[in-house]
Design brief:
Elements (H helix, E strand, L loop, with lengths): L16 E8 L2 E4 L5 E4 L9 E7 L7 E7 L6 E7 L3 E9 L2 H10 L8 H22 L11 H8 L1
Antiparallel strand pairs: 1-4, 1-7, 2-3, 4-5, 5-6
Length: about 160
């Protein structure tokens, strides 16, 4: 008898939802005039992958609800954060039972059923995050600067 043929080891297909994944900026400008730099955010390490599960109504999308592994505990947390602190938005199918459960518990409706909806919102959030980062601090960047824009420009 082969494995899975009536011996109780058959598994139901994994649930899937389309979510928007993003990464936390490695360095962000902070303080008076944006002249200080801080790694990541208070809740997430720089470079961490988070899932966007909700946006606030009104079309501004400046605040997002996210799920990701916390800076100190490495367990999943659900928090609201600024769009400007995220980059590289993309639509991904998510199979993780923990992420899907937290998404449902949050009740913000961010588990998109279709790939196209998630991709469209990911593209919009990617454009807005750049706009919010560049518009936040009117003062010139500190020297040397390791903020997300300066790091990405130096690689080009």
């Amino acid at each position: 008898m082969t494995a899975g043929a009536g011996d109780g080891s058959e598994r139901a297909p994994a649930e899937q939802a389309w979510l928007i994944a993003a990464n936390v900026v490695r360095w962000r400008r902070y303080g008076e005039g944006g002249q200080e730099l801080r790694p990541g955010t208070k809740s997430y390490r720089g470079g961490s992958k988070v899932f966007v599960i909700g946006t606030y109504p009104g079309g501004a999308h400046e605040q997002l609800t996210t799920i990701g592994r916390g800076r100190r505990t490495s367990s999943y947390i659900t928090i609201d954060m600024s769009t400007r602190n995220l980059h590289t938005f993309r639509a991904l199918p998510v199979y993780s039972p923990t992420v899907l459960r937290l998404c449902q518990e949050a009740g913000v409706g961010g588990c998109w059923t279709g790939r196209q909806d998630a991709e469209e919102l990911a593209a919009l959030l990617g454009r807005l995050s750049v706009e919010y980062r560049t518009g936040r601090w009117p003062a010139p960047h500190p020297t040397p600067c390791r903020c997300h824009e300066c790091l990405t420009l130096s690689r080009a």
